[in-house]
Amino acid sequence: MSTSYQEKITDPLVRDQRLHLEYFLDRKLANDRGQDIIDGLNRTRKTLPPKYFYDGKGSQLFEQICELPEYYPTRTEASILKKYAPDIAEVTGKVKLIELGSGSSTKTRLLLNAYQALDYPLSYVPIDVSGTILKESAYSLLQDYSSLNIKGIIGTYEQALSNLKLVTQEPKLLIFLGSTIGNFSDLECDRFINLVTSSLAIGDYFLLGIDLQKPTAILEDAYNDSQGVPADFNLNMLCHLNSRFQGNFQPSLFQHQAIYNEVDCQIEMYLTSQESHQATLKDLNLVVDFQQGENILTEISRKFNISQMQTYLHSQGLELIQSYTDEQKWFGLLLCQKSFTSRRGLR
Ligand code: SAH
Ligand code: AVI
Question: Is the pTM value of this prediction over 0.70?
Answer without folding.
Answer: yes
